[in-house]
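User: structure tokens for this one?
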Amino acid sequence: MKKIFALFLTLTSSLLSSGANAHFSHFEPRIIHLYEENRDTIILMRMPFPLVLLDDSWKGIDSEQKIPFTLRVSAENTVEYLINHHEVQENLAGLKALIQAGYRINKNGQQQSYRVEAINIFNSDTRKPFSSLDTAQSNFTGEISISADARSVFDAGLDIRLRLTDTSLINDEITIGSILGDKFNAINRLANIINLYRDGEKTSVTTVGILDYSTTRQPSLATKLINGFNSGFSHILIGTDHILFILLLFFSATGFIRLLSLATAFTIGHSFSLLFGNNLAISSPAFTPGIELLIALTICVTAILLLFKKAQHISTTPILIIGVIHGFGFSFVFNELAKEGSQTSISNLISFNIGIEAGQLFIYGLAFVLTALVKKHLSFEKPLQYYVSVFTLVVSAYWIVTRSIPLIEYMQI
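Assistant:
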């Protein structure tokens, strides 16, 4: 029992430290604009600042490793990395070298050298728009600019302007590649929004993860569907609150048919809001944190019902409604990316949704196997669902408190 209790505390601590919001910060955009200027190709790019600073040896904040262009400051039970503005200004060539090492640009298959003409470092919470070419260009005011409020490196973003000389976006194939972040879990949360301006027309492509873009080889429909499926599958696995609710459904079911009916109702509900979330969303700034709070409340109530052996009486209608609420969490992934200039087709939404369903089935299957193994090799004083419901209740109660804060602050304005 001591080992079980220790595991409980470890898992709970990990989940509580992961933050209050589960969906709306899942994908961090890397926005790219390509256009031609006097026989040169100009590339404007926005990305998280740590993406170019962390190398493959990075083991996390707890490792207290050194990060270039930062000052390591000890805080309460943690370490903060603050941007060293003076070092950035004094060693601008070093920062440009890191950028050039992270991005490979080819012209007709041959690797090219390019210039980093301008750099802008900013606080992500007060960032200026970058979704259109005009707004992107307005972010550059000189060779280097750093916002005064750009302090923590993990809350900072980076804008860069690159120049590739003697190239044509019409006659040449320009490719941009980067594996920055490939060694970290964050790569699956990096959305590449690429905008190409050529012959007076704009072509946009959105991908997730490693950057591999060509101005002439656009991704096929099959590639888009596969990417959408993979994004949906990985997205459900990083949505901790969705995983916990799926586990509650698993332990609430008295048999396979019962589980199938609950899972189907939940699927139909969140599929509806995922596909039609753009039309159902309310523009109020309280809507987003309100949905997050509702998701936490549904998990908490379901955990209480499971704890008192009442969950088996839940009908499919409430689960359908809960599915709609949870689905807004997924739909806002596309809504937030759309604000950054991403264009989402119905095929992207469908493949993303199929990936989510496959992820759910994977969780159900994994829960079945692990439950069978635990029951075979371990003995408990109470049924296994008791410990699952208590654990979920503690985590969801914490989420309710933290997710209420933005709503309270909004009502006080």
